[in-house]
């Protein structure tokens, strides 16, 4: 992605760029805006007065003057701002710049006097980079956007950190946006290995034989119906010094979910290429971690597979055995994610991590509960749950705690095996979380991103275009950096 952010010591009016972006605060030009206005002989003030532009938060007024293009952005009232609002503002500015094909924009470091220029530079840069993302690979004639943003009076190192995180988000979005005929489990593994090569991570990839030899019977049962072979992917980041902690990330990696013999209706099958959004999030997070180098060890695991129908696909009524020895009665082949995750969690547990955070597009039930923009957070360990929730707040990703109601464990009792893969419809997301917790032998948090992992329309999320959102990358990275 040729979208870049840098900083300058100069003011907006001093930096030569075809577009200048300044704020309207409490209905008036900001200080940067007034400097720019005097360099333009008061043109901005006059136009602002004549216009009906009130400067409400997130609105903008585009003013193409003969000498320069100006974008006035509304910051609403003078008081009461939250730092995170600068991220959504950055997204909107980037959208305006990219859609107009502008190559360079000098942007005011909004609210720097209120929050400090380091924090405002970081959050604004995140928004600009997130908002400039486009997936143009399969559009003949379309070029990927090119734009450079220069934050006036900004703090350089903060924008570099933002860029490292957002490159992880871009990667996650790219992986989700790839069509499922391209991004098979084999291709997902290849991309993960490529990231490892480029960043110095270790990568290990296992195929069908090793998966079966390790006793990953639950994962294998889902995978074996497809002609596209499964790949179990492990990425390892080791700090230079002795790590203070060992952390594990696990992501659901269904490169396509037809539902299997419990077949999905056609409408529900649309967007199921995004059923690997959890895997994309952990791979994206690992890319950022490799760049940011925290003092903790991080391992990411993805049991990549495709849920298909064939003569060798698994059935309803099958009983399978996971790596930790537990037997599972399969009563719905569309509840496949938890089967692949059962083995990924059991495998991750063998390393005795201090914490496992798992992220998956797991249940439609969670979307019913929380809608398309909010992820469900299920904590088997309270302190870990709070830490992940806090990280999400700081990262500007919406998550909400859901109960791991122990009474509902009854609903997963099987007549013939240790557990069954579905219970009742009511509280389905909670039952799914309880199921997963049976296979995680370490402090455990589950994030259900079935809603926010994929945006069917632009209105479905605040940080970029429709398609893969990269949800989770920012939360995971923030959580890991706060452990160090
Ligand atoms: N991948 C789906 C969950 C999903 C639904 C993700 C909508 C994104 C948007 C998952 O594998 C699934 O099909 N879950 C079933 C579980 C049920 C059979 C217990 C569901 O939610 O209906
Ligand atoms: Zn499914
Ligand atoms: Zn699924």
Short structural summary:
This protein folds into two domains: 2-152, Leucine Aminopeptidase, subunit E, domain 1, CATH 3.40.220; 165-481, Aminopeptidase. Helices cover 36% and strands 22% of the residues.
Please outline the helices and strands.
Blueprint: E1 2-8, E2 19-25, E3 28-29, H1 31-39, H2 43-50, E4 60-64, E5 69-74, H3 85-99, E6 104-107, H4 112-115, H5 117-131, E7 146-152, H6 156-177, H7 185-199, E8 202-206, H8 208-213, H9 217-223, E9 231-237, E10 246-257, H10 266-269, H11 277-292, E11 297-307, E12 319-321, E13 327-329, H12 337-349, E14 355-360, H13 364-370, E15 375-379, H14 382-395, E16 399-402, E17 419-420, H15 428-437, E18 444-448, E19 454-455, E20 467-468, H16 473-483
Parallel strand pairs: 1-7, 2-5, 2-6, 6-7, 10-11, 10-14, 13-17, 14-18, 15-16
Antiparallel strand pairs: 2-3, 4-5, 8-9, 9-11, 12-13, 15-18, 19-20
Helix pairs in contact: 3-5, 5-6, 6-11, 7-11, 9-12, 11-16, 14-16
Bound molecules: ligand BES and zinc ion (2 copies).
One zinc ion (ZN) binds next to loops.
């Amino acid at each position: 992605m040729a979208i870049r952010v840098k900083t300058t010591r100069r003011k907006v009016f001093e930096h030569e760029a075809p577009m200048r972006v300044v704020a309207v605060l409490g209905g008036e030009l900001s200080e940067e805006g007034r400097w720019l206005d005097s360099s333009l002989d008061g043109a901005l003030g006059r136009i602002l007065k004549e216009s009906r532009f009130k400067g409400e938060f997130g609105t903008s007024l585009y003013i193409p003057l003969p000498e320069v293009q100006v974008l006035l952005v509304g910051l609403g009232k003078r008081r009461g701002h939250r730092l995170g609002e600068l991220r959504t503002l950055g997204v909107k500015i980037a959208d305006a710049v990219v859609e107009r094909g502008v190559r360079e924009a000098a942007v005011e470091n909004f609210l720097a006097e209120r929050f400090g220029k380091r924090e405002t530079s970081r959050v604004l840069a995140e928004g600009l980079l997130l908002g400039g993302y486009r997936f143009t690979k399969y559009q003949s004639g379309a070029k990927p956007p090119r734009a450079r943003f220069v934050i006036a009076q900004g703090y350089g190192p903060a924008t570099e950190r933002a860029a490292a995180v957002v490159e992880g988000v871009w990667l996650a979005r790219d992986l989700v946006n790839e069509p499922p005929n391209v991004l098979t489990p084999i291709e997902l593994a290849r991309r993960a290995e490529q990231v490892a090569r480029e960043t110095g991570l270790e990568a290990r990839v296992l195929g069908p034989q090793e998966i079966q030899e390790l006793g990953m019977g639950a994962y294998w049962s889902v995978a074996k119906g497809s002609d596209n072979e499964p790949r179990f992917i492990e990425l390892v980041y080791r700090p230079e010094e002795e790590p203070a902690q060992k952390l594990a990330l696990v992501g659901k990696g269904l490169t396509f979910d037809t539902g299997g013999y419990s077949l999905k209706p056609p409408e529900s099958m649309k967007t199921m290429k995004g059923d690997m959004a959890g895997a994309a999030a952990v791979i994206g997070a690992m890319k950022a971690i490799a760049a940011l180098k925290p003092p903790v060890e991080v391992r990411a695991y993805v049991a990549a597979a495709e849920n298909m129908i064939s003569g060798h696909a698994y059935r309803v009524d099958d009983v399978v055995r996971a790596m930790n020895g537990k037997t599972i009665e399969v009563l719905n082949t569309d509840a496949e994610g938890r089967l692949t995750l059962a083995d990924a969690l059991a495998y991750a547990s063998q390393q005795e991590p201090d914490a496992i955070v798992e992220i998956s597009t797991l249940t439609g039930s969670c979307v019913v509960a929380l809608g398309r923009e909010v992820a469900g957070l299920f904590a088997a360990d309270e302190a870990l749950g709070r830490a992940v929730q806090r990280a999400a707040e700081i990262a500007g990703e919406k998550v909400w705690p859901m109960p791991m109601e122990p009474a509902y464990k009854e609903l997963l009792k099987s007549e013939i095996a240790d557990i069954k893969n579905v219970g009742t419809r009511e509280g389905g997301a909670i039952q799914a979380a309880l199921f997963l917790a049976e296979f995680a032998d370490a402090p455990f948090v589950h994030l259900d991103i079935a809603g926010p992992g994929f945006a069917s329309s632009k209105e479905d999320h605040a940080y970029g275009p429709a398609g893969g959102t990269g949800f989770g990358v920012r939360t995971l990275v923030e959580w890991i950096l706060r452990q160090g």
